[in-house]
Amino acid sequence: MEIIKTEIKDVLIIKPRIFEDARGYFFESFSERDFNTQVRNIHFVQDNESKSSYGVLRGLHFQKPPFAQSKLVRVIKGAVLDVAVDIRKGSPTFGKHVAVELSEDNHLQFFIPRGFAHGFSVLTDEVIFQYKCDNFYAPQSEGAIAWNDPALGIDWRIPSDKVILSEKDKHHPFLEDAEWLFDYNEDLYK
Question: Which UniProt keywords apply (predicted)?
Fold first, then answer.
């Protein structure tokens, strides 16, 4: 796999090595050994999958400690714009984001470390989205910030009148109004 660095340290794009021939293709989508030596030494404990249609926007979500999560995400079918936002107070990249298109064609994966809010918008008629998490989901630990916070400046690549949100995602605070954020100086992997 090829590790592609982004503008924010530790937020990484992973490009797998694809073997294609007349029969189709094959690639190793995950190797704990390679991931731990090339990206970060963590252990994923939960895999999730979602199916969504064009215009669905999920996010921007995170889990607070002690249930903070790193995520490794990819698209099985369709295409999304995937976004990670640095919400670590004191970070030199606080409030900045990285956005990458993940698709069934490019096979890219996106690693979002703990301390970041995550979301995605669906760019095709249908998407099947998978993600690995290094901590179990805990509903009491949910946190989120507004997808449309103007201070974040995220272009979700969907007209705002076409965005489809869950009822919960319609009511998250802007980053400046968030009651809880991560501390950049805290080791979130202890």
Answer: Isomerase
